[in-house]
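Handout, page 2. Input:
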Amino acid sequence: MLVSSHPVSLAWVFRPDHVETDHDRAEQHAGKPVHAVGREPDNVGRVEVVLADGARVRAYRHEIILG
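Output:
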């Protein structure tokens, strides 16, 4: 178990799957900090993600990673 007496800040970033056909989504938003993630997935398993700059994208949960 990891124990720290110092404050820890966790940040999430959007890392789009480059295998998809939507390359503009990958180019424009890759590596941006995530502000919020929706709870309910759509019919293909994506959730709404609000990036720190206000952009909204649909993403699979595996595309949101600790960064």
